Known about the structure:
alpha+beta, seven-stranded mixed beta sheet, two-stranded parallel sheet, 25 helices, binds cytidine-5'-triphosphate
Amino acid sequence: MNLEHALKDPIFKIISKSADELDMECYVVGGFVRDFLLDRNTAQDIDIVAIGSGIELAKQVAKNLPNQSKVSIFKTYGTAMLRHGTIALEFVGARKESYRKESRNPEVEDGNLDDDQKRRDFTINALAIGLNASNFGTLLDPFNGIKDLENKRIVTPLDPNITFSDDPLRMLRAVRFATQLEFEIDPKSLGAIKDNFQRINIITKERIVVELHKILESPKPSIGFLLLEKTGLLDVILPEITALKGIDDVEGQRHKDNFYHTLEVVDNIAKHTDNVWLRWTALLHDIGKAPTKKFSKKVGWTFHGHELKGSKMVYHLFKRLKMPLNDKMKYVQKLVFMSSRPIALSNENITDAAVRRLVFDAGEYIDDLMTLCEADITTKNPRKFKKYHNNFKLVRQKMIEVEERDRIRDFQPPVTGEEIMKAFELKPCREIGIIKEFIKEAILEGHIPNEYQAAYDLMLEKGTQLGLTTAS
Ligand code: CTP
């Protein structure tokens, strides 16, 4: 097959010329070829395999580029990187052993294209296109990756036990590609993941999280989480999620299976947001339910305090996975903590005061919180489904009304501490806080509007009540 039309970008001609100058064979492989054939946005990361020194080839390409791009060399890995506009070119010399594992070992023997292709993770990632003038555009597909692309299959080129032991991260990559591309993992490869899942423990957390993110960013993340669960990987990586599995039945009283519910919520939210942190929130919103689950004859199953428990667990989970313990984590924690608030609200008579309080507590996260809560509606009862969505519509409507009037979202105290001090000739003291809190509460409860004059009058009233005297 000739794929010259995949190589329209002028950079390929420059690589071709450079390789011929060095009398070196070279190929474009991996994601670029796969995504071109799948008609996906072709990758901006382009992998080039040289039958020889990848570093030498990179240097030659840099020489031939008009703007003399800088080559970054990774000696221990035997690779070189070159940026050209928005494209990142990675050059590697073909090796006899898995280039991922053995490239860290300088002793490893150089290999030919075939050696390189069979040491790659999946047949769909082992497709190569020739770049030399003699074979420019020729597809080399020794493992029938094209057929696997057509049949939507993730298959390892070698015995999967070998491929996965070369780099156990590939087990997770298999799940990630299955999710991103909506492909099936070949039964033999799937079986090998089930046999080897514990080996994921030798992989760094950072690499694992990259794959988790890609699964979560996919159109239907549940595909990945179901596969992770089925293979045993999920229990190693995210035991908080597997702990949600199962339905308990005591004296005929059952609760829903929170694992499958969670996956539905994640799929629902994926239709409404690309924000991966909001998707994380959907995945983690119920994790506090496993440790807080209780049964009593009187009320059946309860999960009291699961939101607080869950938000604390978020910290430990992020820490364990070496995820950032920054504002992203705080965002996830806060949304998990507040995840039941709008639901509780929409079950009651929706008062202005309750809506104001919700907006006040959620602050800038209110829209995301509402998106989460709407995704959380997974009832199969059409009547209830409609009712809950209608209630949320009402909450949203009221939020708009209340916000127009009282601007609670970015609440700033209408009377400042300084003004209170001035009015009563005070030095910093407890009373200032009490008055500020009293004004805020009055606004949230709707006793006064969020306006300066009303707040000032209330300040005078409360101050007098506290025994303070105004400045004359
Ligand atoms: N590869 C591999 N084993 C790994 C990682 C990568 O064999 N553990 C090979 C595959 O041939 C892959 C190529 O290296 O296609 C490039 O890897 P990478 O950039 O991580 O992935 P892509 O396939 O390009 O896909 P994506 O950009 O979606 O991550």
